[in-house]
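Data card: per-record layout.
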Amino acid sequence: MQSGRGKLKKWLLEFEVKDSSINPLMGWETSTDTLEEVVLKFPTKQKAVEYAESNNITYKIIEPKKKNLLLNLMQKIFLRTDYVA
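The structure for this 85-residue chain is written out next.
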């Protein structure tokens, strides 16, 4: 399985669930708040902030975590500089 990093440059505006509860029949988490299903995508952080502020939406910015890319074995072999040719 491969994990692509191509769609990581989008910013999301997600709404928090206001009243979640457990469905007594099935045991699933349920809510009467339909905003939890809405996810808005923006090309930049600034556009997302502008949208939230223009619509009086309180927001919290969560910066993406920096991912340390591990080199695989072949890359380590070809990038080695401590050997004599």
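Known properties of this structure: The first strand starts at residue 11 and ends at 14. The longest helix spans residues 45-54.

See the next section for split statistics.
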